[in-house]
Amino acid sequence: RGLELLEAPGRRKAPPGLQQGRDGPRAAGAARRRKAAPEPRRNKATVKGRVVKSAIEEYHKKKAVNHLRANLQYMLKGRFVANKTITEQVLAQNRGRKSKDQPPKKAAKKKPEGTVFTEEDFRKFEREYFGRP
């Protein structure tokens, strides 16, 4: 009250709704920010004594390995050979039903056209037809 008396006559306090200062709406956010100011702390994401992994080593670990050579040696080493009909049955079971999955039709092997008659038959026919001995 004493300060109000000593205050200059032109200056008055603003109404309580328009006051700004520590009690304003921004003050609480600023106090929170000040309270949670980043202090030098230990990074929780790291572990003490952790070894950094090489990206190249990780890539080589997860890279697919080609077992073709070892599998071929294993298959060729065996002495048991499956029956041809059994092999065909297994392949037919694993084949799809679409036309693109079907193997090409094998053309039937044509036998070379030969005659039913022998050379002796031709000579005999010659003698009978032309009258030669």
From TrEMBL:
- Segments for region (Disordered): 1-49, 91-115
Subcellular location as annotated: Nucleus, Nucleolus
Q: Does the keyword Transferase apply?
A: no
Pfam families noted in UniProt: AROS
Q: Which UniProt keywords apply?
A: Nucleus
What is the annotated signal peptide range for this record?
none
* InterPro entries named in the record: AROS
Q: Name one GO cellular component term.
A: nucleolus
**Spans through the membrane:** none
Citing just one GO molecular function, the answer is: enzyme binding
Family, according to the entry, reads as follows:
Belongs to the AROS family.
Name the chain's protein.
Active regulator of SIRT1
